[in-house]
Write the structure tokens for this entry.
Amino acid sequence: MRRFFLRPSRPSQHDFRYRSVLVGLGLAFIASAAHSESLMDVYNLAAGNDPVIQRAAADHAAALEALPQSRANFLPSIDFKASRTENNQDVTKSNFINPITNLPNTGTSSFRNTDYSLNLKLPLYRRDNYVARRLAKHSVTRAEAEYETAQQDLQLRVAEAYFDILARRDDLEFARAEKLAIKRQLEQTQQRFDVGLVAITDVHES
């Protein structure tokens, strides 16, 4: 006798994403059992907790920040400097005669010097600045495309999981209704048997 064993296939990345959304939606339905959730409400809930869409949103925001930074290289730069020096000098001999004392002027003299400088620089052409701006634009375009793709992928996964859960909930309600109907039928048959209207075989068949 030969036995065959089937090796389970390895789940794909889409399956993992679908299962994560399915579990999240299941918890959302349990938490909101008192009121119904629309598909848009469920999507907003998933978008706030899905790691794929959050990573794409973060990359998109980072790319948008890099664009104004690349433009800043074309703006002028201003450099302002101020300096002040003070020199003290002792004068022991001088050729200038004080007219009052009729003696040479001697003592200490101070000299102060203040300098100001304002430099304005504007790059006329730097190839690396143009390359950086072009790369920043490409990064923004790519990030926007990836973010839009992630949104569409999440919408598809949420819709699949949403309607899957609705179908499972309908199946569960149908199974409960069927179980309740069988229970009532059994109770009615048992009551009829108790009053002698049916045989015991009818009770077993019920």
